[in-house]
Amino acid sequence: QSLPQQKLLTWLSVLECVEVFAEMGTARVWGEMGRWTIIVLIQLAKAILRLLLLLWYKAGIQTSPPIVPLNREQQQPLHPQDMEESSSGKDQTYVGRRSSRVVRSLQNTPSLQSRHWGSPQQREESQSRRVEELNQPPTPLGLQETIAESIYITRPLLHLLSLGVWGQRSWKPWLLSAVLDISSLSLLSDLKDLNRRERAELRRRTILLLYYLLRSPFYDRYSEGRILLLLRLLADYVPGVGFVTRPLMDYLPAWQKIYFYNWG
Description:
Helix content is 67%, strand content 2%. The chain is mainly alpha-helical and 264 residues long.
């Protein structure tokens, strides 16, 4: 990735990290008008950054989060002693004569903070496999797939626009958003040679369609009573489940009112 593309991904990641805090803080200071203003500005900035990545840098299907989180255990470099021994040609492992079990030799035991429980070969293989996955180029998108990804990127802006036109109690913004999400996924379903990260992203988007059960006005009219009743029954009749379901019952109404948790 080029340096400008990395900067765009960094800014996009920063926006996704602070959007909930910005919404709640602005609502506390400036009320509902300030809350919806910051929501529109953040969604507009995110859409511009994503469209630049899609159309200018040909980033393909964009994942969420934009920057893959660092797995420190897998990214941990080999112990210097391991590197010296491997470069000198000495064996790092010992194979038992009768058990055929592979164990690390005592001369190659790393320090405690960098110790892992696999053989050096397994660790090198996992690191090389992860590097290959991260370095896989994005799948080239045709016209249909580019339109589908553009629909997915602009869907939040169209939803906010429809909320301003028809109001929060109307079914039209909910239906418009659902149609756009389903249309984007159906147009992207024809892609075959996707890498692992892109397949995981499409699965994530498909699972997120369940959020429409928690989004107003569907949640207010149909889902709220049934979900709370189910959680209450689980808490009352299933031993041990109440430790999870009772806090969830208290948290769900507050979560549902935060835009970036529910719609972002």
